[in-house]
Amino acid sequence: MTEKLEIIQQLHIAVENDRTDILRAFISTIEQNDDHHQVISNVLNNCYHDDGTLLHVASKLGKIDVVRTLLSSGSDPGIHNSYGKTAVDLAATHNITKVFNEELLQAAAQSNVGRICQLLAAGVDVNLYDSEESKSTPLHWAASFANRDIIQCLCARGADVNQINSQGYTPLHDAIKRGDVEVITELLAYGADSSLNVTAGKDEGKTCKDLAGTRKEIIHALDNPPPLINIEEEFDLGKLSLKTDIGASTETIGMNGTAANGSEPGSPELKTPTFMKTVSFDDMIQPPHPVVTEEKLSLLWPQPQSMLQQETKPFVIRHHLPVYVSGGPAENSIQVMKIVKMRKPSFTSLGLDVSINLLSSLSDTRVPHLQCHVNNRLCPGHGLYKLTISQGQIKMLCSDYSSLHCAISTVYQLMSLYKENEEIIIPGLMIDDWPDLHYRGVLFDASQGRLPNFETLKRMIDTLVGLKINMVQLFCRFLKTQGWQLGYSKSEIMDLVDHCSDLGIQLVPVLEVAPQVQFDELDDIYSTIEDFMTCFTDSQFVSLGPRLSSFVIDTENNVLDVTDAVKLLPLRHNQILNICGYPLHGMDSELLIHLPPDVVISEYGIQADYDFQRFCSPLSSHGISYIMCPGTSAWNSLAGCPEAAINNIFSAVKCGDAHGALGAIVCNWSGKGHLTHLPFAWPGILVLAGLAWNSDCHQDYLYSNLGELLNRHIFKDTTNTIGHVIVELGRAETYLIRCCRGQAGGDSQKLPDEHGSTLFQFFFNPDAVPIEHLTPEALQRSVRHLKKCQQEVLKINLTCKDSEHIKKELSLTCDLMIFSARICKSLLLAGKNPMAGHAGYAVVNLGVSNLPATVKTDLANRLLELMEPYKEVWHKRYVVNVGLSESVGKLQNVFKLLVPGSDSEGLMTQQNHDDQVQHV
C-alpha cells in the first residue's frame, strides 16, 4: 500500500474512532501549503469510501464532533454518494441533524450564501427552528444579521416569510428592529405581511410602524412596498427557474421542489450546477485549474468531463465555415468526410455556409476553420475526443468514428449557444471528453400505443445523436398470428437501420411475446420472428423481454442455463444475448456463476424509488455484464412525471456507474390508452442522455435546468418557454397524485403510479378513482396552473421540425387535463359528506351516474368537442393504424358513462355536418 493510500485509510480510521485531533492535525499540516484550499477540498469532498465522503461516513456513524470539524474545515454537505444520498440523508441521530441545522443558522447570520445553498441542497430544512424556546428560523436570523442576498436566497427556496417565533416576531419585525431598509424591502417583495402585530413578549401588540418609531426611511419602505414576487401570480416561463407554484403556500419546500407535508409542490429551485470530477491524490498537489466562468457552458448537454477556459482571443465566424478532415493510419479520411457531411445540416441551420474538404498543404488555414482528425494512436481509447478552441481554429481530435459524432455534437451546441445575430463568438476552450457508460440508449415500444410515424421517428433519431445517444432499442411484442406485426413496414425498419448506422447509432431488436403465447407455441411464430430479425443482421445485441426471458432460462439441476435461446429463437452466433433480469430476482444469486460470459442482463426499474442496488450488486460481484433500464415516467398519464423520471434515472445511472454497468437505456413504454403525447417523453430521454455520458451531475441542477435544456436541445424555442411548460404540466399532474394519496411532498414512493396518474384515471374508470383526500382548493390551484400553462403555449416559437403540431399537442394536453379536472371537481361536489368533521371522509366518490344531468351533459359536450382535434393531432405525427382506435375508444367510453346509450361517433358526424352547413 502506498503512503498516499495509507493516509486516506488513516483518515477514515480517525473518523470511525472519533479522533478529531488527527483530523485537525492533518488539516493544520495541509494549511501550511500555498494551495491548501484546493488540497483540503479534494480530500474532504471526494467519495473515496463506499458510503461517500468523510462527512458521509461521520454522519452515518453519528460522530458529532467529527461532523463539526469537517464542516468547519470546508466539507460540502451537498455532495451525493453513489446511492444518491447526502450526508444529511445519512444522519444517524437527531443530534447529527442538529449540527447541520446549526451550520445553516450560522451561514445565514454570516451572509454565507454558498454555504446556505450547499446545506439546502443537502436536504436541511429551510424553515427549521433554532430551538424550542426561541423557535426562530434561518430567515429570522438573516433578518437580524445578514444582507439582502441571503433574504432572497432563503425566500426563493421556500422560507416562510411570515413565520412567528416565540417572542412574537416575524422576520419583518426583526428587520425593522435592526433598521436595515434593504432587508425590509426584500422581505416585503417576498410577501412579508406588514399588517401583522407582534404577538408575544415585551412588544406584544405593536405594529410594524410602532417598531419603526421615528425612522422615516423604514416608514417610507413600509408605505411603499415593492411589487410582490408572488408564486401564485408571477408565471415567468422565460427564466431558468419558474417562480410559479400550484399553491401560494408558506410550507417547507424540499430539495426536489415539493412541500414537506405534501399539500403544495414548490417550483424547482435555481442552483449552481456542480460537475465534480473524481481526482487522484496526485491531482491534489497540482495547481488548481482555471475556473470555468462562462455561464452558457453549463447548458452544454451532456456536460463535458473536463473544460478549461483559455486566456486567448475567441473563435469568431460569420457566414462561412471551412471544415478540413483527415484520418490516422487506421482510419479512413473518406469515412470521416462522409460523417461530417451527414452532420452538415445542423450547421447550415445556424446560417453557416459549410465547405468540407480533405486536409492538405493547400488548405487555407489562415481563416477561422474547423479541423477534424480521427486517430486512435493520438487519442487512444473508445469514445474519447478533444476540442481545442482558439482564435483561428477549432481543432477536433477523436479516437474513432463514434467519438467524431460526439465531438460534432459538442461543436454544434457551442456554436448554437454563442450565436448572436449574424455572428458566432466562442471563447477559448480546451475540452477533454469521454462517456462514463459505454452504451447510452432509448427503448421505444414499436408494437402498440402512440407510435411516432416513420418521419417523426427519424427526426427523433437525428435529435438523439446530438445528445450522444449510441443505441436505440425497438420493442416488438409478437402475437400468435403469422406475418409482419410491427407498426412500421419492413422496408421502413431497414431504412431506419441504415439511418442509425450512418449516425453511429446501433438499432437493437427487443423480442417479446404476448401473454397469450405459451412456451410450446414458440415454434409456431419462429418464422415470423425470423422474418423480423433479417432486418438486424448487423446488430451486435438481441434483447429479450421478461416473458420470453423466462422461457429461455432453465434452472434444472441447480444450474442456470440459457442455451435454449439459440434453439427457440433465430439468433446468430455472433450476437450478444441480452435477457431481462426479472426472472432472476427470485433465484439464488449463486446460480449466476453459471451464466455464460456473453450474456448481458437488462435490469428494468421504472419507479422513482426503485432499488437498483439490490439487484445489480450481486450481478457485479459475480462478474455479470448488465445494463440499467430506468423509464421516462411518461406513460399512463397525460403529461408525465418529470420528478419521478429524474429520481429514477439518477438512481439507475449512479448505481450503474459505481458498479461497472455496460450502459443505461431509458424506456418509453406505451402503457394503456396512449393519451400521452410525444413531447412528454423527452424529459426522461434528455436526463438519461446527460447522466449516462457524465454522471457527476447534481440532481438539483436537473430540477432547476430541465426546462431550459429542453428548450435549447430538443425544441429550439426562441421564447425559452416550451420546456418549462412541459415540466410544469408534469408537476401539476404529480401534485394531484400526491393529494389523492395524502402523500408527503418529499415522498417519491410509487411514482409514477402503476395504475396511472389521477387525471389519467378519470378517462378510464372515473368511478373508481379515490378522491377522499382531495379538496376543491387543491383542484382549483391545479386548474389555474394548467390554464396559465395553456396561455404560455400561445407564446411558443419553435424552430424545430413539426413546430405547429407540437404546439397543438401541448394545447390539447392542457384541454384534456382541464377536462379531467372538471370530472374530478364534479365528483367532489356531488360526494361531499354533510357530516364532514364529525364522521367519515369529507368526500366520497359517488360515481359519474350520480352527477346532476346538466353537469353530465356539459361534460359530454366538452368531450365531444375534444374528440375530433384529438384524432386530427394523432394523424399528423403518429402511426394511424396502431393505437388510435384503442385510444379514442377510451374517450368514447367516458362519453357513454356521461350519456348512456349515446353514440359519440354519430354525434361527432352530425356536429361536423352542422358546422359545415353553418359555414356555408
UniProtKB/TrEMBL annotation:
The keyword Hydrolase applies. Pfam families: Ank_2 (PF12796). The keyword Repeat applies. This is Beta-N-acetylhexosaminidase. SMART domains: ANK. Keywords: ANK repeat, Hydrolase, Repeat. GO terms for molecular function: hydrolase activity. ANK repeats lie at residues 50-82, 134-166, 167-199. It comes from the Eukaryota. InterPro entries: Ankyrin_rpt (IPR002110), Ankyrin_rpt-contain_sf (IPR036770), GH (IPR017853), Hex-like_dom2 (IPR029018).
